Automatic annotation (TrEMBL):
Species name: Nothocercus julius
Pfam entry (one): EF-hand_7
CDD domains assigned: EFh
Record's keyword terms, sorted: Calcium, Magnesium, Metal-binding, Repeat
Protein name, as recorded: CIB1 protein
Residue intervals of the EF-hand domain: 73-108, 118-153
């Protein structure tokens, strides 16, 4: 992991790799992330940068690799997936988060975008299935419950995609 992190750094930072921060632009170029529709959110969630740059320290990079490894538990994967899907970082998945989630999964082009009616129906279906307390949002416990019923969750979240 250290060798890979060091190689991703700009050449002038490689000698001090342990104290360097990997720019978000370099993280986004990782082959494992390049096609991931959540790559920007992944950088945001794993970055400890206080300047909003979403750059990664070596420890951040290790955390990211650990969560996406096959050996990470489904609880750990669910924790980070929830934060990745919580686009406004408010601790719940509301209709706007779900809309962003669907748009990431279906693509941003006009041809692949759902109509307003289709989006509304899909979000209604998601909430009917997931919103146990019927408050119009999905909290982490509800998200964990849904994930626990999905045997494919850990398999599809097993590697950077």
């Amino acid at each position: 992991a250290y060798t890979r992190f060091r190689e991703l750094l700009p050449a002038e930072q490689r000698e001090a790799a342990l104290s360097a921060r990997l720019p978000k632009s370099c993280v986004l170029e990782l082959p494992e992330l390049r096609a991931n529709p959540f790559r920007h959110r992944i950088c945001h969630v794993f970055s400890t940068a206080e300047d909003g740059s979403n750059s990664l320290s070596f420890e951040d990079f290790l955390d990211m690799l650990s969560v996406f490894s096959e050996s990470a538990t489904s609880e750990i994967k669910a924790h980070y997936a929830f934060h990745i899907f919580d686009f406004n970082d408010d601790g719940i998945l509301d209709t706007k988060d779900l809309e962003n989630l669907v748009n990431c999964l279906t693509g941003q082009s006009e041809e692949s975008r759902l109509s307003d009616a289709e989006m509304e129906q899909l979000i209604k279906n998601i909430l009917e299935e997931s919103d146990i307390d019927k408050d119009g949002t999905i909290n982490f416990c509800e998200f964990q419950h849904v994930v626990s019923r999905s045997p494919d969750f850990a398999r599809y979240c097993g590697g950077l995609r």
